[in-house]
Amino acid sequence: MKSDIEIARECRLKPIEDIARQVQIPVDELEHYGKYISKVPESLIDEKKVENSNLILVTAITPTKAGIGKTTVSVGLALGLSYIGKKNIVALREPSLGPCFGLKGGAAGGGYAQILPMDKINLHFTGDFHAVTSAHNMIAALLDNYIYQHRDEGFAMKEILWKRVLDINDRNLRYVVTGLGAKTNGVTMESGFDITPASEIMAILCLSKDEHDLRRRIENILLGTTIEGKPFRVKDMGVAGAICVLLKDALHPNLVQTTENTPAIVHGGPFANIAHGCNSILATKLAMTYADYVVTEAGFGADLGAEKFFNIKCRESGLNPKLTILVATTQGLKMHGGVALEDIKKPHSEGLKKGFENLDKHIRNMQAFGQTVVVCFNRYATDVDSEIELCREHCENMGVGFAVNNAFSEGGKGAVELAELVVDTIANRPSRPVVFSYTDRDNIETKAEKVVRQVYGADGVVFSTAARKMLERVRQLGIEDYPVCIAKTQYSFSADAHAYGVPHGFKVQIRDIVVNCGAEMIVLIAGDILRMPGLPKSPQAERIDLIDGRIEGLS
Amino acid sequence: MKSDIEIARECRLKPIEDIARQVQIPVDELEHYGKYISKVPESLIDEKKVENSNLILVTAITPTKAGIGKTTVSVGLALGLSYIGKKNIVALREPSLGPCFGLKGGAAGGGYAQILPMDKINLHFTGDFHAVTSAHNMIAALLDNYIYQHRDEGFAMKEILWKRVLDINDRNLRYVVTGLGAKTNGVTMESGFDITPASEIMAILCLSKDEHDLRRRIENILLGTTIEGKPFRVKDMGVAGAICVLLKDALHPNLVQTTENTPAIVHGGPFANIAHGCNSILATKLAMTYADYVVTEAGFGADLGAEKFFNIKCRESGLNPKLTILVATTQGLKMHGGVALEDIKKPHSEGLKKGFENLDKHIRNMQAFGQTVVVCFNRYATDVDSEIELCREHCENMGVGFAVNNAFSEGGKGAVELAELVVDTIANRPSRPVVFSYTDRDNIETKAEKVVRQVYGADGVVFSTAARKMLERVRQLGIEDYPVCIAKTQYSFSADAHAYGVPHGFKVQIRDIVVNCGAEMIVLIAGDILRMPGLPKSPQAERIDLIDGRIEGLS
């Protein structure tokens, strides 16, 4: 089969105005970035129409290193829905340059179920990530400058909580010391860089209701504590307006198209393992304003992205998905069933069946959120029919809808079974309103305890001394009503990346806590997860190339 | 008078297609970024037409902290040329976010002589700076990763020459130690950040002839020396293609418009004090393909930007300006004439006359490059006519053309005198072909010696021990034929920022040398110039604001 970029190149793109017209987005409101990308102002959101639209969440079993293909299924479902005549928009996150040049590749779907132009989307796109990086680092520079310029007047910080970000996998930047050398090089400090998708600014962009809410959140960002023990925020430097200016355009969602010329809205890009993992509320609501069915996804397995989708994004926005699709692959199931990683592409029915345990736990979890669940089997070329039938049988026994997605190879017509199942299920037995794992009034320990017990299947949570200190700070700040955002490996229900299947008898260690007073959530860092990834020995960058103006090696 | 952004907001912009049509740029080739900005492919350059176009360089006397208004004069001249019916394009550099949020403000002209949309141009624009930042830091991450991943195979670096960049004034990042903490956080190393306009990638973007030349230059970038003493380059990691992919769109020049709807091409943005200070060769040639007169500028005083414009950009591209305009202000002249900075806005004829010394030295310097020079007096509201007449008289006595620019207050009609002088001078006594300060075959010491003696008026150059070591490296690498790019304070002919006027009896200390094997130049760091600026006590960011979707405080 052809590579993703070959398929993307062969697709006949339609001008973005034509895509907008399909769903009655007013063409005059588009802000073009080339012929095939435009920004759409969030002011077009109509809450009445949002209420009448059907939101579908796509999530997955615990993924392998290669992923489960959630984006491919999301795009495939959108193609399938269009194929059967349903007006829909797929609402996705923007890819990060880090994984694109690192291990995982881009994040624009695959095969005949992609969003286009995939090269632009996977690279600089409309500059939203760059705006987030600039805004984040501008705050860091302004903060260090404030300390430097006011140090002779007795101003000093007891603790600085604000780091820097880059949209690159650069492990060497995780922990740095800045301000070395001459005295005029600033004040010597410990610092570090996270990847841009972990930036609090990214979370704020994805959770803001409008420009005013963005402003309020930027003002409230907690940068640290002064020597007098007072919280020091962006508003204390008087620069929130300047930071909002840097984010002005980034706040507008981006309109693109799929491989079959249907509309896609792509906006925001926090990772689900180190951040809250959902596209922006504005993008989802904008899509719901213009379509009867909106397909969106949350990152990595359902323990990460979907949990945060419900407990953070739905709580914040009032959104209620009508249906949750849980994506599974034979490879993923076999990995969870104990099959060695080098053998998961070969037939192995016993291993597959053992892997159902992981699928079932995710199904029960999603049902606990009040969701109607259907399982989507994402077909790979190496899959055999008998194993797919085992999955179908298993889901039937569980009383859960089942469909195969073959959009990767066939585009929309490979997702008709899935699309029909989705439409039928939403019509006949839609989800209940979201049942949250915890209430606002639970304190942070209780919130964490509830998530790790109910969702991860853990025996509880343990806070490190550093984390306990931050918990005390959270209490002092009076922000215990914020939801928790657990940063945890994507490869296991537990914080141990090698514990496949459904681990039991473990506790989740919270190593550190990051307070996000702008995004209004408390980030709990579990186990050894790092918010700045590294590059592998042979990074994808070695295979990306530019040959006579043609980009190769992007996937 | 109204503020820059108020004037900008009141301007009625024309769709960018209309601007392109004015000069017969084919509209189908435009890649839009909103209604008023587009990228134009550099493949449209026609060398025959370039030869027949008239290039005008705008440079200045040694500037004050507020600048001399070169960009305002460049745009003003373009407006004036249009006013008298001459087909022209102004070709400028892109502003950096660093000074925009720091001390100096934006760089899109001022008053009624601006390029628009000034907010977009001063902020993220078409993302070119972000692409340069990404490409530069991606190389840094790939390099550190290469060292980390191959350290057990005996690979190690004796010296790393590649730093990182951010488009922010952040003094705390000048000198950092990375890779601290756990072993998995990489290899502990000294590093640092320069501002993006000092990135070698920025210089490469501005000097590349086409995509293939870009590729060749990226491959050749010298990253350091291996433990065996071998040069280690980007091509040794096999990632040059991936880096070119990140720069693919950034290589295309950007088309915008002036306050009077005439075309402007804005592309590339190295600073002239810490880099070579000229817009891209591709942008200049593209402008020359479509206009009879092309106005371009080089950064800061003529000792910095213009020297590098001739010795680097013209040498590399074969361009020959027909005329050089030297911009002067009463404030600048008075500063050089010994008037205290707080008094330079008040009348002071004696101080003004003493300041002519600085003007005259720059005039003689430009004439030594083979240039016909005219002096443009950039009028400020506080100026008095008698002082302007003193300047006119002085220039007449020097045998040099003189005109007042009042485009800041009046737009194009305020620059008619200047435009007529320019057209007349080009017709009757155009410059000779550029006379370089040194030949390719001079060694680096000789090249530096020639520039500091001829252009700065110094008694010679002194290399530090560190610089001498790098000179030896340059010899070993066989790259002594590269031109030199002297990084030096913009506030004096010397390396002492407080030596106004025309200092005498000084030598220029070269503290360090940065080898740019991709940009093909040797950067000599003179005195205490820093390639990462800091923010002032009250940065511009405190005055930039977003009020109901309207940007305020940008200038």
UniProtKB/TrEMBL annotation, chains A, B:
The lineage of its organism: Bacteria, Pseudomonadati, Bacteroidota, Bacteroidia, Bacteroidales. Keywords: ATP-binding, Ligase, Nucleotide-binding, One-carbon metabolism. It comes from the Bacteria. It catalyses: (6S)-5,6,7,8-tetrahydrofolate + formate + ATP = (6R)-10-formyltetrahydrofolate + ADP + phosphate. Pathway: One-carbon metabolism; tetrahydrofolate interconversion. Its EC number is 6.3.4.3. CDD domains: FTHFS. Belongs to the formate--tetrahydrofolate ligase family. ATP binds at T64, K65, A66, G67, I68, G69, K70, T71. One of its GO terms (biological process) is tetrahydrofolate interconversion. InterPro entries: Formate_THF_ligase (IPR000559), Formate_THF_ligase_CS (IPR020628), P-loop_NTPase (IPR027417). GO terms for molecular function: ATP binding; formate-tetrahydrofolate ligase activity. This is Formate--tetrahydrofolate ligase.
